[in-house]
Amino acid sequence: MSDRWSTDDVWALAPDASSRKAALKVAKDGSWPQRGAVAAEAGGTAAVWGECKGSGSKPYLSAVHLDDPAGPGYKCSCPSRKIPCKHVLGLLALWAGGEVADREDRPEWVAKWLGGRAARKERAAGTASKPVDPEKAAATLRKREEAVGAGMDELGLWLRDQIDAGLAEVPKHGYGHWDRMAKRLVDAKAGAAATLVTDMPSEARGDHWPERVLERFALLHLLVEGFRAGDAAGPRVRGAVRARAGITTRVEEVLADGERVRDTWQVLGMSSSFKEQTTTRRVWLRGRRTGRVALSLSHARGEQAPPTPFRSACETDTELAFYPDGHRAAPAEPPEMRPSGPPPGSSVPEALDAFAAALAEDPWLDAWPVVLADAVPARDGGWFLADASGNALPLESGDPWEFLAVTGGRPSTVAAEWSPRTGLSPLTVWDRNGKAVSL
């Protein structure tokens, strides 16, 4: 996207309200003694870069690659894990305000970063252009399924041993006990299932750990039985089982053979998580006509921001191709985003019914989007968000101060991620004037 942005476009990228507030403090001419814009060959701007004065002797090096169909790419030398960080947002705000001029000269670090992105894009294009031998691909998939099946059988035996030993033995197990089973699953090409096992030590601590451990054992057992069921489990359940076990579906296969749904897709909100040096960005969308929920996932390592063509508080008329689980999706064509108003909201019981329906197809879901209408903060020991009838869901953060700052306590439409384990995490709130703010 190389056309000039508005400041609203910039703030739509902010991961939360505090990032936007911090960015306003650095979006000043004096904070960026060195800055410039790189012109795109087809016109417009390809990239923006700048050196921001910080508290130390060295400036923070920030850059944004704008001319990429997959969405903007970000770089900053600051230690923040928020993507984009306050320096990137401040730089973009200056550029959107016309305070960053085109420059033919650029520092070496800018040229090196842009060159690296171009090289990775060329390598990816070269890999995608290679013809695929259908017979070889089918044989490779069969071997993968056989290996994962063997891993699932071993996991089933291991689970039986854990139950035979009793839950009282769980606190005595060190990390090695869980890692040994996880490594065997990795060797069996069942890396996703291995992750469920490596998370066990965190479940075996604190209050109510027996219930949490038993729940995790039950989900692992369900995964084993679901994999053994094969096609009898139904297409969406089978797709979820294979993905949770570790059999991935390439995006090229999804675009070629996946279910296609055309609708006006509204972006409900975005969230990011960081694990093992990888940032994962989740973008939740919902079709205005079909009411169907879609999840767009993107990943990036290190300082790179996960690319996404979607933007908060916007919508697009486009076609999505769905993965076999029926939830995750990829755009079948480059989406053209436009601002949108608040989405239709529901009550808490209606939101929980929708989550239950999704859980029936994928029992391993750890989060699901809900849109609550006329939501207000409520307190009963802890903080909740309540609907007009007084039904409420607990807040994950434990306090509603960001929400209150936007709404002033007035009933508002809020899109959030709901997890029975952690609570409600607001993503986007629309105030009484219909203006959206990312939290």
Distance between the termini: 24 Å
SS-derived structural category: alpha+beta
When the domains are counted, the total is 4
Average pLDDT confidence is: 89
Number of DSSP strand runs? 16
User: What is the H/E string?
Assistant: HHEEEEHHHHHHHHHEEEEEEHEEEHEEE
The amount of helix comes to 25-40%
Q: What's the overall geometry?
A: globular
Strand content: 25-35%
Number of H- or I-type helical stretches: 13
- The radius of gyration is 24 Å
Overview of the structural elements:
The chain is an alpha+beta fold and 439 residues long. The protein has four domains: 7-129, no CATH class; 134-245, no CATH class; 258-339, OB fold (Dihydrolipoamide Acetyltransferase, E2P) (Beta Barrel); 348-438. Helices cover 38% and strands 26% of the residues. It is built from 13 helices and 16 strands. Strands 5, 6, 7, 8, 9 and 10 form a six-stranded antiparallel sheet that branches. The radius of gyration is 24 Å and the shape is globular. The relative contact order is 0.09. The mean pLDDT is 89. GO terms for molecular function: zinc ion binding.
What's a concise summary of this model?
With 439 residues, this protein is α+β, with helices and mostly antiparallel strands. It has helices at 7-11, 17-26, 86-96, 108-129, 134-165, 175-187, 191-198, 200-203, 209-229, 235-245, 251-257, 348-361, 401-407, and strands spanning 34-39, 45-52, 60-65, 73-76, 259-275, 278-287, 293-301, 314-322, 329-331, 338-339, 368-380, 382-386, 392-394, 412-419, 423-430, 436-438. Strands 5, 6, 7, 8, 9 and 10 form a 6-stranded antiparallel beta sheet that branches. A 6-stranded antiparallel beta sheet has the order 13-12-11-14-15-16, with helices on both faces. A 4-stranded antiparallel beta sheet has the order 1-2-3-4, with helices on both faces.
